[in-house]
Amino acid sequence: MSRMTVNGRPVQFDMDPQTPLLWALRDAANLTGTKYGCGAGDCGACMVMVDGAALRSCLVTIAEAEGRYVTTIEGLSHDRSHPVQQALVAEQAIQCGFCTPGIAMAAAALLERNANPGEAEIREAIPNLCRCGVYPRLVKAIERAGRVARRAERISAAPAPGIDARDAASAVPAMRAPDIEGEIE
Ligand code: FES
Ligand code: FES
């Protein structure tokens, strides 16, 4: 059993401790925003934040995540108002949507450390693979997200695409809080 906090909620995974965090999030917690790309640490599609740092969840076991704070794309904001989410939409830096959650998490972790990163730092902090070559727009979007984070600019929140993001982050039947019997409503 491995206990941790996922998107602000205490959870325990009754799984083999060597299970990759990626599988626990996707298959047990139903947080499918975190994507499986290569499973080998190369693509970044599985990136989540662990204690504020961007990590590839395919390379982290749930035993290694024990006691830590995990944030997935569903928990980045409840209304898509995170500066990275707003800027990715505003700069049209999203194409397939498969690699985007991992990119957003890597960018969010970067801005936690430095809200005013230069291009070289952005490129270094975003190792994620994007087959459609959206990188120039990504740099612009992350620079813009930094301005929003520093309150030097405002972007209107992107409209929700028909699903309540709060539901996506909380409707996870397999999540169980420690010391509580049964599923969390
Ligand atoms: S699935 Fe984890 S890096 Fe590709
Ligand atoms: S936007 Fe996903 S591969 Fe390029």
From TrEMBL:
CDD domains per UniProt: fer2 (cd00207)
EC number of the protein: 1.17.2.1
Keyword Iron-sulfur found: yes
One Pfam assignment: Fer2
GO molecular function: 2 iron, 2 sulfur cluster binding; metal ion binding; oxidoreductase activity
UniProt KW 4Fe-4S keyword: no
Record's keyword terms, sorted: 2Fe-2S, Iron, Iron-sulfur, Metal-binding, Oxidoreductase
PROSITE patterns assigned to the protein according to its UniProt record, in alphabetical order: 2FE2S_FER_1, 2FE2S_FER_2
InterPro entries to which the protein is assigned, alphabetical: 2Fe-2S-bd, 2Fe-2S-bd_dom_sf, 2Fe-2S_ferredoxin-like_sf, 2Fe-2S_ferredoxin-type, 2Fe2S_fd_BS, Beta-grasp_dom_sf, Diverse_Oxidoreductases
Protein name as annotated: Nicotinate dehydrogenase subunit A
Source organism of this protein record: Croceibacterium atlanticum
